[in-house]
């Protein structure tokens, strides 16, 4: 069923005129995004209360007689003077309120009221700002206009027309005028107001749900809930519970408020509108929502996010019978340009623990060269790649000494290829990412007429890369073996300058070839995804291990070859009299260097020494933490190989056993597959073909991974030699300190590109920092998001307190600032703006916007992550802390304070500013 037909089914379709109903409510230019979205939700079967709209064009027509007078005042607005602005706003509002509602409009409104709700119903009347041609509109993806227009609750039939006029007039309210000016939109003059009339739902428990973290944009959900109708939660009038719902596990962390008040209609004064009423008994300290209600609301939130294709800010309520009603949904307004997504879930296996400057800078260079060639192969033009050079150089981050993927850069780069939607899901799975840090923006294949040729060309290019991939991988392997051998040979006799030149030469050549390894990853990911989908469809009852068992066997890759060589050495150690016992006598905390010398001197014959040298020459770059240049590998420290082979020898492993086990596993899996797909030979053939491709891509991946280890191994050798040279020259305290310098600092010292001669001072500083980080058992989470300056948003333990008192609320808009606290109880209170004003208040609403915009930071006692204060802080980039109990009495007026809008801390530095 189309949206139009669905709307026709749930609402009577009305003609275009002063009242819009039915499918006419989908016209965003007339009703604005707020009400058009409600119409879409209703069409999707979501529980939205019935409503109709008075369109933006009616506002324009009705006010046409006074438009010249309105414009004359608008063009003389003085946003810098709040008193003058309030006078001008009053004059504008009086002009609007004096315009009568045309009789034909009044009749149409009352007729619609009776037909949709019934004459005795109670409704809400809400305004929605609509910009020129629907732009700069309330609840759009670009602008929330949160709380700027008026809304009226518990409205009866005889009051509705007056409330409509007041909604029209709210377009000229002080806060609406100030908001438009602050947003620098053209809508100060060119705007309209749509009015929605909606059935009033008598909510007993209300909520606001963000389907992503409104502070950082992380994908974990945030839910605020309170007692009574939604206005109490949205306007921060009642105490509010906070629930933080982990998207990966579904776990809920709750902060339950002590509830003293609820907002509802006073039963003793019907028709008087919402009032704050006391809460009694156990309800004061119980959560407003049950666990089941939280799950139901988050499920509906996910459904809404899928409907609109982006994270949602959702307002809703539950009536006495427990029924859920959605009152509003709008996009979460995020500054995605300031967001960074971080994960080390996959990369920590390559760079565990604290990493040195040399390893980090070397890895950065590797990713830059690797991915530059990859995107070139996918057909991205050199000009586009040049514009994304910063992303290429920032694919990794070093946070608290640990290597992280900067996923925001990855998404930006991957989107350069029109094929990314095909392999996005498999990319996220391969990276081991939590759902909390997936990018909020959807990716779909571009199929519009203007983009279709580009998409078709990219798909054809990917198909061609698949067709030629296997021979291209063989060619890559031949090229690499020749290239690394040539560079190793040249390095044997090179002086320091030529060593630097050799390193640059290897980077240049790798940057022209290495993208093939990433093409292989894409082919592997997409093939694996296809296999998994077919398993799910054709083999729903198969055991979980069948897929992996079917990948056993086949052509031996480099990793298997290295393992077999090591097991062969272990078998020889077992067969050599006395050698296994000699290894057992070694100190387990030290490399068996003395025993290695005895082996090399022939104490146990020549076979073991020859086999160790052969293994080291062919596979010596495979070892523990082989991509960390500060960690030696068997090529440099053969005693590592001796100890590892000794452990295998004691385990009793043999090559025959390993190969036999793998063959038996594969044979048994093939038999299970044949049984499960009996009578489906075509399906079995398709799966076997795809599995064969997957095995081939896995082998290529393992082969090229060892090539990567050899590239890092060559770098390790070059920089150790250059470290020795720097120590001999007195530029370093010790040769091993070279790992605390970056690659460019080392190479630049020898080829003239360095920006400092004090390498010793740099190395000392970084060595101390490295040791400090290594001894502190403090790690960041595996996945998280930051908004704004990264160091300000890291989820680290609290910094050491400054002199004075530290207070804590909820961080709601990131940034660390210092300034002078000004405690403001009444927004009409005269406060002289200063460059370092920190506004401290009990609560704020849109009427505080003038003061808020002049503040360097904002601290309030009430509020939520979803409140107007928090949203405005994020919108205008003002660090903000909400829900800090007793802020107006605990923070002295005039005190010097430091506030952190990410962690929610406020530190009083001095009681009175100097």
From TrEMBL:
SUPFAM superfamilies (UniProt xref): Glutathione synthetase ATP-binding domain-like (SSF56059), Phosphohistidine domain (SSF52009)
Key word DNA-binding present: no
GO molecular function: ATP binding; kinase activity
Pfam families documented for this protein: PEP-utilizers, PPDK_N
Keyword Plastid in annotation: no
Annotated ranges, domain Pyruvate phosphate dikinase AMP/ATP-binding: 30-332
Residue ranges of every copy of the PEP-utilising enzyme mobile domain listed in the record: 835-904
Keywords, comma-separated and alphabetical: Pyruvate
Biased composition (Basic and acidic residues): 259-268
Region (Disordered) residue spans: 259-285, 787-811
PANTHER family for the chain: PHOSPHOENOLPYRUVATE SYNTHASE-RELATED, PPDK_N DOMAIN-CONTAINING PROTEIN
Protein's name in the database: Phosphoenolpyruvate synthase
